[in-house]
Design brief:
Oligomer: single chain
Strand content: 25-35%
Structural class: alpha/beta
Number of helices: 9
Largest sheet: 6 strands, mixed
Radius of gyration: 18 Å
Number of strands: 11
Strand order of the largest sheet: 7-8-9-3-10-11
């Protein structure tokens, strides 16, 4: 069963068409890695899926809920506020720059949305946060503030925060790009463990080893299009499209 469906998605910024008729779906428990050069539309696609940007046309569905659909005149029509609120609880998003609230402790970062946005009981939200911090190996950091944490610790807190509402799907937008190699390993280990637990994930990444060894499917994007997709070992080790081959060759040379 598809947790996420994207159909014929289009998005432009002025004259620049960033997404050109993008369609894909993500099944429950599936890990999809999205790769491609800078400017290919990867992050914009995630931002549209998570309602940080709005499509110009196309359709996005989360299970039975339709976030946006195209009207008869070709424009995008978004769902009502009640449906939008329900959809926002279906996903979590982890940014490349952590985006923690600097004035809140780690515990408050994790409980802010459940308590004040969704209305979860404060005690229940705190219990869930304690469980997530233990899962991330950060049980001793509940009272710390973001500036007291390493980059890897901040990103693990960000992952825990994204999971605080028990989302059906997690989105990661290049979650290791701001980290050095050692800290990158910390985050990839957490993500591997989530994949082993069958967490549904869409990951924009330049980590080819993660894409090859952890993802169930790889999507290669270029210039706003899905150029190639399929089994990671086929796409990464034996790409069919010349553009995919060129991109992977440049990655290998770095």
């Amino acid at each position: 069963m598809a947790v996420l469906e994207v159909l014929n998605a289009r998005k432009s910024f002025g004259e620049n068409e960033v997404l050109k008729d993008i369609s894909f779906s993500v099944d429950k428990g599936e890990v999809v890695a999205i790769i491609g050069p800078s400017g290919s539309g990867k992050s914009t696609l995630l931002r549209c899926c998570t309602i940080l940007e709005r499509l110009d046309a196309g359709c996005i569905r989360y299970s039975q809920d339709t976030l946006v659909e195209t009207t008869v005149d070709g424009s995008a029509r978004y769902a009502d506020k009640t449906t939008m609120k329900r959809i926002r609880q279906r996903f979590g998003l982890v940014f490349q720059s952590f985006n923690l609230f600097p004035h809140l402790s780690v515990m408050d970062n994790l409980t802010e949305a459940p308590v004040h946005v969704v209305g979860v009981d404060k005690g229940a939200a705190k219990k869930k946060a304690v469980e997530l911090l233990a899962k991330m190996g950060l049980s001793d950091k509940a009272g710390a503030y973001p500036f007291e944490l390493s980059g890897g610790q901040q990103q693990r807190v960000a992952i825990a925060r994204a999971m605080a509402l028990d989302p059906e799907i997690l989105f990661f937008d290049e979650p290791t790009s701001a980290l050095d190699p050692e800290l990158t390993g910390e985050i990839l280990k957490v993500m591997r463990e989530l994949a082993q637990e069958h967490m549904t994930m869409v990951v924009v990444t330049h980590e080819m080893s993660f894409a090859r060894n952890v993802a169930d499917r790889v999507i290669f994007m270029d210039k706003g299009l899905i150029v190639e997709q399929g089994d990671p070992r086929n796409v990464i080790d034996h790409p069919e499209n010349e553009r995919t081959k060129l991109f992977l060759q440049k990655i290998a040379e770095k």
